[in-house]
Design a protein that fits this description.
The protein is mostly helical. Helices cover about 70% and strands about 5% of the residues. Strands 1-2 form a two-stranded antiparallel ribbon. α4 packs parallel to α7. The chain is globular. GO terms for molecular function: cardiolipin synthase (CMP-forming); CDP-diacylglycerol-glycerol-3-phosphate 3-phosphatidyltransferase activity.
């Protein structure tokens, strides 16, 4: 049986805020309003730091939903940012394609895990009910590193037109490093597989 939990925690609300900021950032980048985009991106980063800090330090704020929602919010934010920055010619198309492809596979895996860990009979109402916790997701170390590197590249790319270093060789080196950690992260999930999922037993 799944564990019934309250999904309305502060970390989960912060993750939802981050998801809501994604289209705002995308619009600002497409409109080439990079100064405001940098500020909104800093706000999104703050929500990421706060939800992790709160979940780690207050047991009542930690949830199975949060273990999936936090990385999902990161992936949505990163996907929107990379597509927008590619549209603005600040990040190369192959790198964005690589990142989006990996994230689509990981999101599909999350939905599959949700389906497999639901007790029978499986229904749509039960599947999409955030109060029913069936599994916790544990990201790999290299995946955490990859997320940090991807966000560093986003920050550097957003700042590039503001501080006039869009053609810097250091940005190109960062592109290569981001591609490497993205590939390594994808492989780590393939290699460790079930070790990244903890099925919750009913009380």
């Amino acid at each position: 049986m799944p564990q019934y939990e309250n999904p309305w925690t502060i970390p989960n609300m912060l993750s939802m805020t981050r998801i809501g900021l994604a289209p705002v950032l995308g619009y600002l980048i497409i409109e080439e309003d990079f100064n405001i985009a940098l500020g909104v991106f800093a706000l999104a980063g703050l929500t990421d730091l706060l939800d992790g800090f709160i979940a780690r330090n207050w047991a009542s704020q930690k949830s199975a939903l949060g273990s999936a929602l936090d990385p999902l919010a990161d992936k949505i934010l990163i996907s929107v940012l990379y597509v927008s920055l590619t549209y603005a010619d600040l990040i190369p198309v192959p790198l964005t394609f690589m990142i989006i492809s990996r994230d689509i596979m990981l999101i599909a895996a999350v939905f599959y895990v949700r389906y497999r860990t639901l007790p029978t009979p499986r229904t749509l109402s039960k599947y999409f009910n955030p109060c029913y916790a069936t599994a916790r997701l544990k990201p790999t170390f290299i995946s955490k590193v990859n997320t940090a590197v991807q966000l560093i590249l986003v920050a550097a790319s957003l700042a590039a037109p503001v501080f006039n270093y869009a053609d810097s060789i250091y940005l190109q080196v960062l592109w290569c490093f981001t591609a490497f950690t993205t590939a390594a992260s994808a492989y780590s999930y393939y290699h460790y597989g079930r070790k990244t999922v903890q099925v919750i037993k009913g009380r």
